[in-house]
Amino acid sequence: MSNCAIVGINWGDEGKGRMVDLLTERFDVVVRYQGGGNAGHTVINEKGKFALHLLPSGVFRSGVMNVLGNGVAVDLEHLWNEIQDLGSRGVPVTPENLCISDRASLLLPWHRTLDGLEENRLAGKKYGSTKQGIAPFYSDKYQKKTLLAGELLYPEHLKAHALDLLEWKNLTLTGVYGAPPVTAEELLGWLEDYGEKLRPYIRDTGKYLKQAVGSGKRVLFEAQLGSLRDLDYGIHPYTTSSNPIAAYAPVGSGCPGVKIDEVVGVVKAYSTCVGEGPFVCEMFGEEADALREAGGEYGATTHRPRRVGPIDLVATRYGVECQGTTGLALTKLDVLSYLDKIPVCARYLVNGQETDDFPFPVLLQDAKPVLEYLPGWKTDISSVRRWEDLPREARDYVEYVEKALGTRFDYVSVGPERDAIILR
Ligand code: GDP
């Protein structure tokens, strides 16, 4: 593997963090290229169990450089707290193993405030925001109305720019939402406080990456969320506000000309979805509770119970196409071991017609799942490490999904631990 992106194929929470943690041993650099602290990767390794939000999953490997690219929503406060938390648990994060792109835009405290105010205004029509400020942040980024991390290195310029933005933002806070204005002291104090702490991490990461790639270092691009949450290709408007697809990795990493040799798509053996929006394959009642419990499906950042369902082959096939994968990993196969028969959503029923194609988002609302059932294996498979040692029914399930997707699974994960993996 030379340069590789690890991306989510579904609605997020597929276990990307676990795959990045496994594969980082082959890479010198791990780059986050989009999103912010709104989702969480759970990583379990010899150092313990960790929920990462903003930090790349390469922080656990010594000798790996981690980069927060220009496409990331950098919330200095959130990032600093995460660095402190890891440090207190024996995982040092210093400028030696983390750098922040000088071109990354800053997620400011008012983005979190606005996220909450807008969700309250929407009330019953809310989108299920994690209230981390992501949508207001990206809106401002594309209006060029936020600060770049690199501006922290130029304090006089920073102050003048921040005060201009403050005047503008207070018009929205007070005028649109009737909220109290942010004061200059609050904003400048926050910038000074966290800027002081994080300034040493800021550098021209584009230049760093170009040099790293040029000198033969291998780069891993790490995405957050999954295809169906992509701003352009997902279940609009229940998407995130950035592009988790691999095609965005060069842009959001700071190395727009870089060639990505491999794209590993992470597929979950069943479906989960956090928040609002259409979720065609959703299960309810006791059946759903049992799957949620078996998979421990509660959000790493929000602790919200995730919505669950069988694997959705229509959405997953679309997700694979969006990512342009060169290989796939299947995660959480062990979770299905309790089932007598395994449901799969094989097709959708849309306007009375069965279809294999993922429909335009508006049509998802009334789409119905067409279910098929495969035999279960009813055996604990979490200690299996070789493909041929899996029960026949488990192999049949994997092969059935592969056939439906038209792509092979190179990795089958049977537990959250680093070594609970079957390589094929
Ligand atoms: P990410 O955001 O895509 O990294 O996914 P999350 O961390 O939100 O969710 C994946 C969860 O599943 C985490 O708690 C992982 O520890 C866990 N996990 C990952 N792979 C497996 C697996 O194969 N089996 C089981 N039982 N858990 C897994």
Short description:
Helices cover 32% and strands 21% of the residues. It contains twelve helices and 17 strands. It has helices at 16-23, 76-88, 109-122, 134-142, 155-176, 184-198, 205-214, 249-253, 285-295, 313-323, 361-364, 392-405; strands at 4-8, 29-32, 41-45, 48-52, 65-68, 98-101, 202-203, 219-226, 262-268, 270-273, 307-312, 327-331, 341-350, 353-355, 368-375, 409-413, 421-423.
Question: Main attributes?
Answer:
single chain, about 425 residues, alpha/beta, Adenylosuccinate Synthetase, Chain A, domain 1, Adenylosuccinate Synthetase, subunit A, domain 2, Adenylosuccinate Synthetase, Chain A, domain 3, 10-stranded mixed beta sheet, 5-stranded mixed beta sheet, 12 helices, binds guanosine-5'-diphosphate
Q: If you had to describe this structure to a student in words, what would you say it looks like?
A:
The chain is an alpha/beta fold. It folds into 3 domains: 4-104 and 200-264, Adenylosuccinate Synthetase, Chain A, domain 1 (3-Layer(aba) Sandwich); 109-199, Adenylosuccinate Synthetase, subunit A, domain 2; 267-423, Adenylosuccinate Synthetase, subunit A, domain 3 (Adenylosuccinate Synthetase, Chain A, domain 3, Alpha-Beta Complex). The protein is built from 12 helices and 17 strands. It has helices spanning 16-23, 76-88, 109-122, 134-142, 155-176, 184-198, 205-214, 249-253, 285-295, 313-323, 361-364, 392-405; strands spanning 4-8, 29-32, 41-45, 48-52, 65-68, 98-101, 202-203, 219-226, 262-268, 270-273, 307-312, 327-331, 341-350, 353-355, 368-375, 409-413, 421-423. It has a 10-stranded mixed beta sheet, with helices on both faces. Strands 10, 11, 13, 14 and 15 form a 5-stranded mixed beta sheet that branches. Strand 5 (65-68), helix 2 (76-88) and strand 6 (98-101) form a beta-alpha-beta unit. Helix 3 (109-122) crosses helix 4. It binds guanosine-5'-diphosphate. Guanosine-5'-diphosphate (GDP) binds at residues 8, 12-18, 39-42, 44, 300, 331-332, 334-335, 413-416. Residues 8, 12-18, 39-42, 44, 300, 331-332, 334-335, 413-416 line the site of guanosine-5'-diphosphate (GDP).
